[in-house]
Amino acid sequence: MLTKIQNRFPETKIHKIYSLAEVSGRFCIMPSHLISIEEAVGMPMPGFSVEIRNEAGNICKHNEQSLICIRSK
């Protein structure tokens, strides 16, 4: 779908934004030059830090079941 949109509107910049209701809106944004990385949600926006942790509170490894932990700075 993304490729079709980019092909149809080549001059349009598309931004992928990740949001959670628990943080009252968006907290991660994908830079437009990296938008082709489908599984990524982007970088934390200014004022936020994001860590991926397990139920015990430890930083997770890749593909490990996890929680998204967001903190405002």
TrEMBL record:
SUPFAM superfamilies: Acetyl-CoA synthetase-like (SSF56801). This is AMP-binding enzyme. It comes from Legionella clemsonensis.
